[in-house]
C-alpha cells in the first residue's frame, strides 16, 4: 500500500511539473510580441555650401501655340497644308463645303428684302394716317395702330439685317486661316470629314522663339538654397541672381543653350507633386530644334548659395517638424541601418519654406551630421534610440 501511494504521489508531482512548464511556455509565447517597425518620412541633408545642381527632363515647345478650329460645323472641303508646313499669318489652311452656307445666305438676303418692303409699306400707311390724324379725320386709336405696325416693320428689318450679318460671318468662317506665322505641328483630321464647331483641326506653333517646359519636384523646391522670396513675380525678376538655367540636347552634346526663366507655377501638380516651369531659349545657334523634342535642363543654384552668406560647412536646412526639443536641447533623428539615432544640434532661423537652419552641436564629436544623411521628419517625439524604422511609402 505504501508503495502504491509513493507511485501516485510521484505521478502527481510529474503532472504538476508538466502543467507548470506548459503555463510558462504559453505565457512566454504571449509576451513575445513581434516588434512593430514604424514607418517614417526621411529628408536628405544638403549642406548650404554644397553645390546644388539638378537636371530635369523637359520638352521643347513654340513660344506661341494654338489649336485651330472652325467656328461652324460642316464637311471639310479642302486642306491646303500638311504637318510641318511653314505658314504666314492669314494663310488659308482649310475650308468647309460652302453650299449650305450659301443657301442660308440667299435666304437671309431674301428675308431682308421682304422685311424692307414691308417696312416701306408701313411707312407709307403711317404717313397717310398721321396726316389724317392731324386733320382730326381719324381717331387716336387708328393712328396708334399704324404707328405700331411701323415699329414692328422696322424691328423686322433690324432682325433680318442681323440674321444676314450672322450668315455672312458663318460663310466667312468656312475658311480657316493662320492667326500668326508658324509651323503646322499637327493635323487632327482628314479631308472630306464631317467636323463640329470648336473641333481641333491643326496645332500651330511659332518656332521663331522656343520655350522649354519642365517640372521641379517639391522636395527640390524646399531644399534649394534660395533667400526669402515674397512672391513668384519677385523670383522671376531676380532669377538671374539666384540660379542659372541651361538646356542640353543628347544629339548636340557639345552645345549648351542658355535659358531665361519665364513662368513658375505657384501651385504644384497634385498628381506628381511637381511645379511646372517654363523657360525661354535665348539662341538656337543654327541648330535644328523643333517642338516636341526632349531636352535636359540643368539648374545651378550656385548664385543663390552665395546670397545666403553661409559661413560654415556644417549648416543644413531641414523641415521644422524634424527638430525635437528635450530639456532645452534640440535634436534630430538620423535614419541609419533601418534604425533611428538621436543627434544633438544647434538651430538657426526659419525660412519662408518652413525649413530651419541646423548645425552640429559639437563639430569635434564623432556622432555628427554629414552631407547626404537621411533625417526623419515626422513623429520625432514617438521614437527612441535604436528603434527599428523604415521609410514610408509615398
How would you characterize this protein structure?
The structure is a single chain. The protein is of the alpha+beta class. It folds into three domains: 53-63 and 208-308, Beta Barrel (Elongation Factor Tu (Ef-tu), domain 3), CATH 2.40.30; 67-177; 315-391, conserved putative lor/sdh protein from methanococcus maripaludis s2 fold (Beta Barrel). The protein has helices spanning 2-31, 99-134, 140-172, 218-223, 232-237, 302-308; strands at 38-40, 42-44, 53-69, 74-79, 86-87, 92-96, 175-177, 182-187, 194-195, 200-217, 244-249, 252-264, 274-281, 294-300, 315-319, 324-326, 329-336, 339-350, 355-360, 374-376, 389-391. The strands form four sheets. Strands 2, 15, 16, 17, 18, 19 and 20 form a seven-stranded antiparallel β-sheet that branches. Strand 16 (324-326) and strand 17 form a beta hairpin. Helix 2 (99-134) runs antiparallel to helix 3. It is elongated. Mean pLDDT is 84; it is low at 305-312.
Give the helix tally: 6
Q: What is the CA-atom radius of gyration, in angstroms?
A: 41 Å
The N- and C-terminal alpha carbons lie at a distance of: 77 Å
Pick out the low-confidence regions.
305-312
Helices and strands: which structural class? alpha+beta
Amino acid at each position: 500500500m505504501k508503495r502504491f501511494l509513493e507511485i501516485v504521489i510521484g505521478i502527481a508531482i510529474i503532472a504538476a511539473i508538466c502543467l507548470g512548464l506548459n503555463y510558462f511556455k504559453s505565457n512566454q509565447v504571449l509576451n513575445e510580441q513581434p516588434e512593430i517597425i514604424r514607418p517614417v518620412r526621411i529628408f536628405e541633408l544638403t549642406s548650404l555650401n554644397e553645390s546644388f545642381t539638378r537636371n530635369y527632363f523637359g520638352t521643347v515647345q513654340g513660344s506661341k501655340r494654338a489649336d485651330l478650329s472652325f467656328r461652324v460645323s460642316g464637311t471639310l472641303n479642302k486642306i491646303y497644308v500638311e504637318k510641318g508646313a511653314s505658314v504666314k499669318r492669314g494663310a488659308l489652311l482649310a475650308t468647309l463645303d460652302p453650299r449650305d452656307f450659301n443657301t442660308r445666305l440667299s435666304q437671309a438676303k431674301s428675308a431682308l428684302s421682304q422685311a424692307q418692303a414691308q417696312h416701306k409699306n408701313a411707312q407709307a400707311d403711317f404717313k397717310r394716317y398721321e396726316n389724317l390724324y392731324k386733320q382730326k379725320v381719324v381717331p387716336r386709336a387708328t393712328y396708334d395702330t399704324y404707328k405700331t405696325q411701323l415699329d414692328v416693320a422696322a424691328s423686322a428689318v433690324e432682325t433680318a439685317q442681323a440674321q444676314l450679318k450672322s450668315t455672312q460671318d458663318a460663310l466667312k468662317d468656312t475658311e480657316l486661316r493662320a492667326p500668326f506665322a508658324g509651323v503646322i505641328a499637327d493635323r487632327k483630321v482628314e479631308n472630306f470629314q464631317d467636323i463640329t464647331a470648336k473641333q481641333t483641326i491643326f496645332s500651330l506653333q511659332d518656332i521663331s522663339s522656343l520655350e522649354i517646359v519642365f517640372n521641379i519636384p517639391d522636395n527640390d523646391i524646399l531644399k534649394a538654397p534660395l533667400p526669402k522670396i515674397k512672391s513668384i513675380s519677385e523670383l522671376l525678376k531676380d532669377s538671374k541672381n539666384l540660379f542659372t538655367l541651361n538646356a542640353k540636347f543628347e544629339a548636340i552634346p557639345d552645345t549648351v543653350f542658355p535659358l531665361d526663366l519665364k513662368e513658375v507655377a505657384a501651385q504644384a501638380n497634385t498628381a506628381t507633386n511637381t511645379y511646372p516651369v517654363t523657360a525661354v531659349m535665348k539662341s538656337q545657334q543654327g541648330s535644328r530644334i523643333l517642338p516636341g523634342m526632349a531636352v535636359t535642363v540643368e539648374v545651378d543654384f550656385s548664385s543663390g548659395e552665395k546670397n545666403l552668406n553661409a559661413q560654415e560647412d556644417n549648416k543644413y536646412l531641414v523641415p521644422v517638424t524634424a527638430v525635437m526639443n528635450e530639456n532645452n536641447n534640440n535634436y534630430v533623428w538620423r535614419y541609419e541601418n533601418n534604425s533611428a539615432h538621436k543627434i544633438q544640434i544647434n538651430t538657426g532661423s526659419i525660412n519662408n519654406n518652413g525649413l530651419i537652419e541646423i548645425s552640429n552641436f559639437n563639430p569635434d564629436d564623432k556622432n555628427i551630421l554629414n552631407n547626404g544623411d537621411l533625417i526623419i521628419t515626422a513623429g520625432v517625439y514617438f521614437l527612441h534610440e535604436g528603434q527599428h524604422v523604415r521609410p514610408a511609402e509615398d
